[in-house]
Design goal:
14% helix, 3-stranded parallel sheet, 85 residues, alpha/beta
Length: 85
């Protein structure tokens, strides 16, 4: 999936052709997005952000409580523990 037409990608940003950029996403100046990544709808990458391969970023519509956020952070930092690669 290419970059959605409603996404804003800075001219100096580098987005791999195999990356998926969702609607209304914003990619900042000099940001780098590698292949096999998904930047979800409404996500915003600030300038100079580097998104590595196999990363998925989504925007949560509801506030997350502390326990949910902690579990998400642990799952993202230790993907092998949860059967993800």
């Amino acid at each position: 999936m290419p970059v959605d037409p409603s996404a804003q990608v800075a001219a100096s940003a580098r987005v791999h052709p195999d990356a998926q950029i969702g609607p209304q996403a914003v990619i900042g100046e000099f940001a780098i997005v590698e292949e096999d990544t998904v930047i979800g709808a409404g996500c915003r990458l600030e300038p100079y952000v580097y998104v590595k391969r196999w990363t998925t970023l989504t925007w949560f519509r509801e506030p997350l409580d502390f326990i949910t956020m902690t579990c998400l952070l642990v799952a993202l930092s230790l993907p092998g523990l949860f059967g993800c690669t």
